Amino acid sequence: MSRLKITILFVTRVPSNSRIVMLLGQLERMNGEAMVRDVETARQVTTKILHLIQTQEKSGKEVMSKGSSGMEVILASLEVSSQTTLEFLCISIVTDLLKRAFLFVSKGGTGILFQILTSASKELPPSEELMLQLHSLLAKVGPKDRKFGVKARLSGALNVTISLIKQNLQNAKLLLPCLQVLRVYSANSVNAISLGKNGVVELMFKIIAPYSKKNTSLLKVALDALGALLKSKTNARRAVDGSHVPALLALYLDWHRNDARHRHMLIRKGLLVCLRNITNIKLGRKAFIEADGMRILYNTSTECLPVRTLDPLINTSSLIMRKCFPKNRLPVPTIKSAFHYQLPHVLPVGPVAQLYSQPPGVDDVVDDSDDNEETEAETDTDNEEDEKNDDIETDLNKLHPTKSPGRPFEELRVYERFFLELSEDFQVRSLSSSSSSARSTRPIIVPTAQALSPKHMATPASQEIWNSIKGQHTQPPASATSRTPAASLASLELDTIHLTKDHDKKEETHIPTPDGHTTLSSSMHSPQGQMIEQGLPHALDCVSLEDKGALNVEDGLKGVKQEGSPVSGGEGAVLEVPDTALLLPLHDPDLYVEMVKGTRSVPQYAEVAYPDYFGHVAPTFKEPHLERVYGVQRSKIFQDIERLIHPNDILDKVVYDLDIPSCPVIEDSGESLKFNSQFESGNLRKAIQVRKYEYDLVLNSDINSNHYHQWFYLEVSGMRVGTTYRFNIINCEKSNSQFNYGMQVLMYSVQEAISGRPRWVRTGTDICYYKNHFARSSIAAGGQKGKSYFTLTFSTTFSHKDDVCYFAYHYPYTYSTLKMHLAKLEALRTPHIYLRQDVLCETLGGNICPLLTITAMPESNSNDHICQFRNRPLIFLSARVHPGETNASWVMKGTLEFLMGTSPLAASLREAYIFKIVPMLNPDGVINGNHRCSLSGEDLNRQWQNPNPELHPTIYHTKSLLQYLAHIQRAPLVFCDYHGHSRKKNVFMYGCSVKETVWQSNISATSSDLHEDLGYRTLPKILSQIAPAFSMASCSFVVERSKEATARVVVWREIGVQRSYTMESTLCGCDQGKYKGLQIGTRELEEMGAQFCVALLRLKRLTGLRNHQHLLDLESDIIGTQSKVVSPTTYVMEEDEPSFLEAIDYSAESDNEDAEPENEHGNNVHENPDHLDQLSDSY
């Protein structure tokens, strides 16, 4: 046995006359051979030390005080002692001093105890009292020593403890501390495997069974040890092979039935933990199902629900049942989109190439592998380093902008035509009119029942569409008059809408009414230039006119009354159309319909959704975050589990299916809701009625993709008033959602709209978002096995009879809406505004991508004024590269309306800058209801490094515009891409900074590498001062590898724009400032767009200062507000959300018990989000 050499004299900071100090000094002098020779004296000294420590609190403090070597003296005495009595005394002293166990560990105390243990075990028979004291002490020390398991295995202590347990199964006094130590041993994965090989798993099952209330404390420790052992998959297989799963279930049932007063909840929880760890493997789940485990845990959990203190049992049971719920494939024939678009060519590599190369029937498979399958650790992992984020860019060469346009100027010269303002001399035409806008000359087709005139002949493709529409509607079936009102209130179909003008210039629209009849609405249009400055306080003017027939109009729109159309000659239900022109200056229902006719979709939509036709007026009331109801997630999960327990109660009736293109709406006897999504931006693939008032909804994947399910926009009708319906969207993909933090879905009621309230409102109760039992194919999950979809569930009650309602992920904003708004904005142009609309390019789907130029006209055609006009700095803005982020379009709408406004600030802004704006980078994705991709099946915001002109035309040509500007030395002062964020609150920005990226990555860099102008922080800081929804604390300026192909990083790196940003707007709401606790609406989003403009004006004043060093110091004075203290770059991988009552478990396959909250009051919410997935949420 090695001896501990004490080389430091016993000098302490305690008083020199202290008795404990003198005794320790005496004991120190006896260490070594003197102690062996004079054992009795050593025993007397240690007895006195023990007495002082036990009777005087200050004595213990003196021994453990900083600078004291008392612990070393006692450990040295313990190590050299060979007498059992003396060892007892030293062990007793150490036990009393263990309030500071880390000191004992740091002095090597654990190793000395193991040495004594192994030495004592060699004595025959070993001293039971000594073994008892040693194991009791080790049980206290073990949790404080990170290397405890390794030391135990290397010293041979594992075998000593196992031997003692086997020999003392009936000796509870000694067995208890041995099991306590075994529990700590088993925390080490290598030890757990070794113990399993030595039969310890079977030994533990002998200890815990059969049911008995004797020695419950020992039973609790045994279950803890067994649970730790079963974390090893090898040991879990041993438990399955030994048929221990049915035994555990039977034992749990016994304790559940006999523990009426719930005094032994920890034992019941221990049994559940064992089951949970066994079911981490596929064999364990199979054994659990075969043993009727689902029914046993469901029934016992249901009986526990009334007792709040039993929540830990309910939560763990729920976790086990969810994990063991048989994995199912989605109820669709293929996970590829229901719509097909053939690409002109497919790149040789990438997910789209993989999609096209797959044979039929292999795109959606339920993997047979275990979840989180990996080889078990054969080496110790006690000293694991903290996880680091490997996504931060660490290559300094990539962190410094290169300003390399990449294409020869000869190729870029063609883009000069998009910058006429840089060469315009204004000498030819009058200054009273701006440059003409480049508008599509394609004739507008208004389908009618009669033959079209030759000048309005449709193209063959569109003619086929209109023919199919006429075939459906020109000759109504005989039963048309008996159709239910709800069925008649379907989406507006283009061929049922007729436009006409009377001699008073009133525009009239024929619109189908709830009873299938047609009525006319009259909308008086006031001068648009005045209306842009008006607010939204006007009351709705609802009118209903009798049908006078449609008049032929020669000046543009040709509307003909349909022969045989269901026009009523008497009284009937009338759909009153609100006069939205007074309420929404930039909305015109008639114009919207015309825009829809020029929009090309893959499914060839022929219907218009009512919300897009009527428009949306932001409600004046506040919409706070929904307060989460305690236990809501658990109750929803239990209802899902009931489907397996009581399968006969499930209807499983398909009521809507896009995979049946001829008739997606399944007709029935009126007992089911009716669904529809066949309109622009609509997304619902399938609706299944699972219970009388509950429906599973399946979303369509992005075209030419097999995933990206999140955006939804659907129509519901046929509802009963006052009945609560539950809707489950079962194939969401993100691992977390703001639906768990107060966000609600949006609903639009047609009855509300025709009653004077055309608006989207937040709705839904019992909302939660959780992992379900539908398996994601590894093909769609990037090769990852064992992934599942997530369910968004919400309940709602409908208020109106014969209503048609729409649900959406966020406020819809269609491509046709954009075209309508742009047309309206052009009508607002004054002689002082320079506005030009160009067609940047045509998309894959044949839709135009508009490019706007907005600035102020020069004061005159003098050289000085024209020179000032041409040399204004450029601001480049873009939005809606991701179709599902509709909030980006509402922010852009606010920006455009501000720029076209008549306020002095707007005029100053136009005089300060030239704005180049691409308001919708992904029209095809928006039109076809995609969530993230274009028709190419790719995320366009990952194509900026090398865009393909055929597959990514909008990105290719937008980047070319910026490359052209870089070539002519006119790179934008600011580039900003508007986005939406689904998992964070507030509005914030991502920018690019070398210095802040280096700080986060801890890479070595010289001061010259870190030299950087701080101007990139100016704009977001201004926004934090003036925009109530903006949060500087949420901004980040770190460059990540996974974002190197995004607009923000490419424009910063290749074009050399220092102020290159992504501006993220929350889909949920705010947790700070004026809007704290409120869900965000279109009014706040449009305000954010306007405030961005104001911030640019302030930025102009700041950048005009010669001494940029003082820019940030003067910022608050210029803004005129008190400067707030903001945090430096916030680079947060985890969600920054407050906890709430119910613990959320997103990972049903988690095998980390420590991370699981014990109850719904837990302060830490177990989210376990996918880190990379979270940061790549939107941009």
Automatic annotation (TrEMBL):
EC number: 3.4.17.24
One Pfam family of this chain: TPR_CCP1_N
Bias-annotated ranges (Polar residues): 516-529
Catalytic activity: (L-glutamyl)(n+1)-gamma-L-glutamyl-L-glutamyl-[protein] + H2O = (L-glutamyl)(n)-gamma-L-glutamyl-L-glutamyl-[protein] + L-glutamate; C-terminal L-alpha-aminoacyl-L-glutamyl-L-glutamyl-[tubulin] + H2O = C-terminal L-alpha-aminoacyl-L-glutamyl-[tubulin] + L-glutamate
PROSITE patterns on file: PEPTIDASE_M14
An example Gene Ontology biological process: proteolysis
Active site: 1064
Biased segments, Acidic residues type: 364-394, 1148-1157
Residues annotated as domain Peptidase M14: 811-1100
Keywords noted in UniProt: Carboxypeptidase, Cytoplasm, Hydrolase, Metal-binding, Metalloprotease, Mitochondrion, Nucleus, Protease, Zinc
Record's compositionally biased regions (Basic and acidic residues): 500-510, 1158-1179
GO CC term, one of those recorded: nucleus
Cofactor(s), names only, from the UniProt record: Zn(2+)
TM region positions: none
Subcellular location(s) of the protein: Cytoplasm, Cytosol; Mitochondrion; Nucleus
Gene3D superfamilies named among the record's database cross-references: 2.60.40.3120, Leucine-rich Repeat Variant, Zn peptidases
Principal place of residence: cytoplasm
InterPro entries: ARM-like (IPR011989), ARM-type_fold (IPR016024), CBPC1/4 (IPR033852), Cytosolic_carboxypeptidase (IPR050821), Pepdidase_M14_N (IPR040626), Peptidase_M14 (IPR000834)
Region (Disordered): 358-407, 500-529, 1147-1179
Domain of life: Eukaryota
Molecular-function annotations in GO: metallocarboxypeptidase activity; zinc ion binding
Family note: Belongs to the peptidase M14 family.
Name recorded for this polypeptide: Cytosolic carboxypeptidase 1
Primary gene name: AGTPBP1
